[in-house]
Design brief:
This protein is of the alpha+beta class and 344 residues long. 31% of the residues lie in helices and 12% in strands. The strands form two sheets. Strands 2-1-8-7-6-5 form a six-stranded antiparallel β-sheet, sandwiched between helices. It has a two-stranded antiparallel ribbon with strand order 3-4. It has ten helices and eight strands.
């Protein structure tokens, strides 16, 4: 399996699918293969290794905001049916939006807008998002980064601490993910896109514009991590939350709450079963995971405990590169098939 993983990653770099990639494949608490290759920036940046931090982009949603929400649910600090009006004064058209709606992307809140074009003060983003007209019908899935920004603000209100502190205290430290978090430090960080204003690669600063506008800490993006830590996180997911959550929380989190629609959503997680999805063609329908715009992804088969984590900086030097979409499906197909061939 190790040789096969190395071959796939090397091919991806040779085909200019991404400048750098690291990946881990395993089952439950056992790592079966791990490999790092490429350069943290082009043309001849330092080599990527297993300690290189990657901008996790929307994988932040499951690493930080979702985990904190599930922990708050277990501790009785929120319930899924709590409306956002329980925590903040909101306009009439949004008073019935619930925590469940935010987690399952069924709130009707607009998917994405550049908040910096709507306010000059990051402290106003919550009010700005709430002032926007709904873009869809509550109950129907429509992926919304803005909805997860609201969810992050709710968690900060509940615990009276910023999201970066909460995620470190409640998620990353308990799991011994000591290199994960918002606002990274150091030089061993994979570069993302070239900044259109400066022409220089963004490195160590979150790629997502709204999270960047908010100072690097947001409910939708901003977490950086390396493959060592993400392997730990995948172990937890593949073992029903062991070391962090109750198994019943994970069981409910990976359910498909949007059956009959063209998006399959759990609590924070994507759920498998749709043709052409990033899970590939071979993982079972109840697989779950998430992707990040920068080229990151996590998938888990809860039945066997198989997982695959892929970290790339495919947006370097430009987000116009979308070759990773097919590669992601391919690596999941190949590694899952290999896993099953070698099962005892």
């Amino acid at each position: 399996m190790q040789a096969l993983l190395e071959k796939l990653i090397k091919e991806g770099i040779e085909q200019n699918i991404f400048p750098a990639a690291v990946a881990a494949v395993g089952v439950k608490n056992k790592t079966l293969a791990m490999y790092a290759s490429g350069h943290i920036y082009l043309p001849n940046g330092p080599s990527t290794d297993e300690h290189t931090l990657f901008d996790m982009a929307s994988c932040s949603k499951i690493m930080s905001t979702t985990m904190l929400s599930l922990l708050a649910l277990e501790q009785g600090d929120i319930t899924l049916e709590d409306s956002i009006s329980r925590f903040f004064e909101v306009p009439l058209d949004k008073e019935n939006i619930t925590v469940r709606n935010l987690l399952t992307h069924t709130s009707g809140i607009a998917p994405h807008l550049l908040l910096q074009n709507l306010t000059s003060d990051p402290k106003n983003v919550f009010d700005v998002i709430l002032s926007l007209p709904l873009a869809g019908e509550r109950g129907k899935p429509m992926y919304s980064c803005l909805g997860f920004i609201l969810l992050g603000k709710i968690l900060e209100k509940v615990y009276q601490k910023p999201l970066d502190v909460l995620s470190k205290e409640k998620v990353f430290r308990p799991l011994n993910m000591l290199n994960s978090g918002y606002l990274p430090k150091g030089d061993n960080i994979a570069a993302t896109e070239l900044d259109p204003l400066t022409g220089k690669a963004i490195q160590g600063v979150v790629h997502d514009e709204n999270a960047r506008f908010m100072g690097g800490v947001a409910g939708n993006a901003g977490v950086f991590s390396n493959i060592k830590d993400m392997d730990i996180f995948a172990h937890m997911l593949a073992q029903d939350g062991q070391g962090l959550l109750s198994p019943i929380s994970m069981l409910n989190a990976r359910r498909n709450y949007t059956q009959g629609f063209d998006e399959h959503r759990g609590l924070g997680f994507h759920v498998g079963g749709l043709a052409g999805s990033f899970f590939g063609d071979l993982l079972p329908y109840d697989s779950f995971g998430h992707t990040g715009f920068t080229g990151t992804s996590v998938v888990v088969d809860p039945n066997s405990g198989f997982y695959c984590v892929l970290l790339t900086n495919r947006v370097h030097p430009s987000r116009e590169n979308v070759k990773h979409l097919r590669f992601r499906r391919k690596i999941h197909n190949v590694m899952y098939a290999e896993f099953y061939k070698n099962r005892a």
